[in-house]
Design brief:
301 residues, alpha/beta, Rossmann fold, seven-stranded mixed β-sheet, 7 strands, 34% helix, binds zinc ion
């Protein structure tokens, strides 16, 4: 009998994220909900976040992040993990930063996004083999948004999902373990922003999503409006009860998040009434499950 078919064995969820703070802006309520209901939840953070800018005016001028951004973010990450009730592991890579300018400057030598895939993926393969997740969450091939570390995080997650179960690959990274399901998160799904936008308008409030919606409604080359999603939602997790926990975890990343900013534009109550879910796309499953799903562990319980 395999671990995944034994209901006595706790289920395990691993989410792969590029920087400390990404776990709290993408899928945090899902993770808090599963952790609270007995699932073993772990976040793998690929990089140290050392090239993040200070995004919170209240933190400007504080000496610690100025002197040691990676150190400040380790403390923030520990707070966020404790708020979410999850485990967290650093994969040990250096933040590549978001290149800006025209032409774009080259990525810093040795940073995460510059590494050969096998080297970048090895620590995650090792973590998958020791933590033994049944489900892995990742970004899509655009990284959710095209930051080079997010695209690399996607690549290493897919590589680990495919390679961890094969004892012939990464032979120095522990005993093989085959995860059962791989999802891409759809935290920024246009359908969700559309619903929130109209809920705000209906309540006579200002919506910060108008531009996002207009971009979404632009037709594709074949005239589809909006263009079909490359990875449509297959799985909606009802986790509205954990929206406050998610917001608290996000605010714990205080160098990166303006508590008056975009992420907090819609109250948790209005979100619960409008879109009480976090959305995912099932990309690969080694167990049978029927779509649409309401549980990342459908087919595993
Ligand atoms: Zn990031």
């Amino acid at each position: 009998m395999t671990a995944s078919s034994n209901s006595q064995v706790p289920l395990r969820l691993l989410a792969v994220h590029a920087h400390p703070d990404d776990e709290s802006s993408k899928g945090a309520a899902t993770m808090a909900m599963y952790a609270a209901t007995g699932v073993d939840v772990m976040v793998a953070t690929c990089t140290d976040g050392s090239r993040g800018d200070i995004q919170n005016p209240a933190v400007e001028g504080e000496p610690h992040p100025k002197r040691d951004m990676a150190g400040a973010r380790r403390l923030e990450m520990a707070n966020a993990a404790s708020i979410l009730g999850i485990k967290q592991a650093w994969l040990g890579f250096v933040d590549s930063g978001l290149p800006e300018g025209d032409p774009l400057p080259p990525l810093p030598a040795g940073s995460f996004a510059t590494l050969p895939l096998e080297r970048a993926a090895a620590p995650l393969v090792r973590l998958v083999r020791s933590f033994k997740p049944h489900v892995i969450l990742s970004y899509d091939e655009n990284g959710g948004y095209p930051h080079p570390d997010h695209i690399m995080a996607h690549r290493v997650a897919v590589e680990a999902f495919e390679a961890a179960g094969d004892p012939g690959r990464y032979p120095d990274a522990g005993e093989a373990w085959e995860p059962s399901k791989l999802y891409y998160d759809r935290a920024f799904s246009p359908e969700r922003f559309r619903a929130l936008h109209f809920a705000l308008e209906e309540a006579g409030l200002q919506s910060p999503y108008a531009e996002r919606l207009a971009a979404w409604l632009e037709s594709d080359a074949e005239g589809h409006t909006p263009p079909p999603a490359p990875h449509p939602t297959t799985t909606q997790i009802d986790c509205g009860d954990y929206f406050e926990v998610r917001d608290d975890a996000l605010r714990a990343h205080r160098t990166q998040v303006d508590p008056l900013g975009f992420f907090f534009a819609v109250s948790p109550d209005m979100q619960r009434r409008t879109w009480p879910w976090e959305d995912y796309s099932l990309i690969h499953s080694r167990v049978p499950s029927e779509l649409p799903e309401k549980d990342l562990f459908a087919g595993l319980r």
